[in-house]
Amino acid sequence: MKEYLQETALLNFHHPEIQRLIISRQWQDLDAQKQILAIYNFVRDDIQFGFNAEDTTAASEVLSDGYGQCNTKSILFMALLRAVGIPCRLHGFTINKALQSGIMNGDLYQMMPEEISHTWTEVYLANRWYCMEGLILDIPYLSKLQQKFSDIKGQFSGYAVATTDLQNPSVYWLGNNDTYIQKEGIVQDFGIFESPDIFFNQYPQKMDRKSKKLFSELYRHEINKHISDIRSPQQPDKDRL
């Protein structure tokens, strides 16, 4: 089990900012189940949904950014869990890019590969591994999607969601359940990895250097603004009404 507690370049949990966060939140004083719940909720909601410069962003940088997507939130989640002694591992996949329609459109959508690298964290507690994918979208963003598509009561794909029930997705961890929000978009299953470092070394995002540069320097900022507008739509100027 010790391999699931190791620090790595991406899971840099001895970084001062990560250690300060753990101390300020007093996570080290909780029992294991409460530690997992507190860290899960923090990564889901305090780290908003958004796109970092690259998938291989170290945990300390994700924390500094204050936002993340499936892969980078998994990195931060794993680092925080290992920092408090909770074993965890990475499960690697690809997902169909169709579930990103709505936040990725036009030229960007065409540029993206048909299958996008995707990961979730699996957490060990009381002799069981729990799959925790449901932390990708912060609740304010997800709630606005549920309002926007309030007429859809069942399956939904788009806006970074792929679920069988948009209005009641399994994104809350109750201490004895798996959580999911993009699971229905999975195409390939690459299995279990000790760390994100190993996974992304073997299965990097299938984009050429030019596309990666465009995404990092231009497109991701447009996506993040669109996500922010969905989460907190601008109110009309009353003086102009």
TrEMBL record:
PANTHER family: BLR5614 PROTEIN-RELATED. It comes from the Bacteria. GO terms for biological process: proteolysis. It comes from Budvicia aquatica. The keyword Hydrolase applies. Keywords: Hydrolase, Protease. GO terms for molecular function: peptidase activity. Residues 62-136 form the Transglutaminase-like domain. This is Transglutaminase family protein. SUPFAM superfamilies: Cysteine proteinases (SSF54001).
